[in-house]
Amino acid sequence: MPELIPTPGQTIGPFFHYGLPWETGHLIAPAGTPGAIRLHGNVLDGHGEGLQDAMVEVWQTDAEGRIPQQQGSLRRDRDEFTFTGFGRAATRRDGYYTFSTVTPGPARLGGAAFFAVTVFARGLLNRLYTRAYVPGDDAALTGDALLSSVDSERRSTLLCVQEDERTLRFDIRLQGDGETVFLKYPRHQD
Known about the structure:
By secondary structure, this protein is mostly beta strands. The chain contains two helices and nine strands. Strand 5 and strand 6 form a beta hairpin. The longest helix is centred in the C-terminal third of the chain and has 6 residues, at about 140-145. It holds the Pfam family Dioxygenase_C.
């Protein structure tokens, strides 16, 4: 069997919001779920202005660190009760996005907990990948191979800010001062 190569991304214009987001896509876990939290922030351009018409996707483990295997993650008509670990939210005019979810647990014993984040926006030739690490376990964060491979002065761009016990903030800066560290996966096309 021949080796499969990822296809290149396409320019994302200010049109995707008509078909990709769905009304409850931001509800990874409904607000009434025990242990529910809010993950929110802004997608910012190089001038620090909020970027409307961007889309943020989040993939995560459940609170115990298990990778969800339930069907329906990508369906617009998924039920509102099954935790699938996936959500999709469009930004408002000011670049703001929000998710209702649970704090992810570490996928391995002693590992750092994080959200896998993907950003789509007009003008990007391909989606951007990053991680939003959950604060609190300093030993796990220090020992994380990816996080420790990032220059120390840029690591904070990968850390959520704990605003209160039920709220995490993760701003995504596409370029300029404080630009978020973005990841390149093996064989991913530029």
